[in-house]
Amino acid sequence: MNTAWARPLSLLGASAVLLVLLAFRTPGFFDASNLLSIVVGAAPLLVAAIGATLVIVTRQIDVSIGSIFSVCAVSAGLLVNSGAPLPLAMLVAVLLGALLGLFNGLLVGVVKLPAIVASLGTMVIWREMLRWWREGEFVHDLPPGFQWFGLSQSAGQITVVVIALLLWVLASFVLRFVHVGRDIFLVGSNPDAARLLGLRPTRVVVGVFVASGVTASLAALLASVRFGDIDPGAGAGLELRAIAAAVVGGAAVSGGRASMIGMLLGVLLLSIIGPALVFLGVQPQWERVIQGLIILIAVGADASVRRSRP
Asked: Which of 99, 173, 207, 282 lies in the 20 to 30 Å Cα band around 1?
């Protein structure tokens, strides 16, 4: 079997086993409204996982995704409540995400802090600043034009899913066919060789952190339009799910390798687990335990493959 397809096929197999179990135990899981809810809920995770994948390919990690998500969601909500047009509020949120990502990138690429330390620090800073600012208060009374982008619920749900898939297609195309995508893989595979070829690894690293901030902000927008209020803690745990989707999908923590198809399947599997546990009568806190196990298994499998290579 082609090793490039080993991870996607294993994810398909795992998803199939889970779905068969649900079909026998709780057929109600396959109700059309429940399946649509799962797919729409997976869209923001898919977008956030794109940024997480890009960072991991360069041998880095970004655990501040959830905090950036929350800051951008609250900022967009407050802007539309103040009378700003929705497109302007969305643009400001994306620019804010890019700025927060740039800060991470400079800490890692220029200051040379370890990525886990830098992004963990900013995760706590943004989260606690947001907590001090909002004191846990939701953003209420959003204008009607904000929810589902001012569309009907069915049209808005389709729009959210289509936007997420288009962003995934764009990222897949860039990584496979555009020069900058090949630069990202080269820097992740061998930074010294990339430098000898005239690339600037620092710029690439800063760039992927900016991209991670942008995708976190876009994920925040896709998630926020689903509800009438914005929870300042909505991004909690998103970084774990995004990293899990990237790693289980085939992104190597050692850098230089990723599978966008695998990441997409990883997002679907992780999005199914939570609702599946509810239907199976399992306590919901086990979802994060399973996510952690998925990361350990995926990283362990990659380490085993590396050791077995001559």
From this structure: 173
- For residue 302, the model assigns a pLDDT of 65
**35: Cβ contacts below 8 Å, ≥ 6 apart:** none
For the chain, the domains span 9-14+33-302
Show the beta-strand stretches assigned E in 185-251. Answer: none
Enumerate the H helices of 63-152 as residue ranges: 65-81, 86-109, 115-134
Q: Which of 96, 127, 121 is nearest to 107 (CA)?
A: 121
Residue 1: the pLDDT is 45
Q: Give CA–CA dist 186/307, Å, rounded.
A: 21
> For residue 268, what pLDDT is reported?
92
Name the token pair of 95: 């620019």
Instruction: Please give the torsion angle defined by the CA atoms of residues 236, 119, 45 and 140, in that order, rounded to the nearest 10 degrees.
Output: 40
Contacts for 6-11: CB closer than 8 Å, 24+ residues apart: 7/248, 7/249, 7/250, 7/259, 7/262, 8/249, 8/250, 8/259, 8/261, 8/262, 8/265, 11/248, 11/249, 11/262, 11/265, 11/266, 11/269
pLDDT of residue 12: 84
The model's confidence at residue 306, banded by pLDDT at 50, 70 and 90, is low
**Total-model pTM:** 0.93
- Using 50, 70 and 90 to split pLDDT, how confident is the model at 304? low
Question: What CATH architecture is 9-14+33-302?
Answer: Orthogonal Bundle (1.10)
**Cα radius of gyration (the chain):** 19
Instruction: Pull the structure tokens for residue 164.
Output: 């997420």
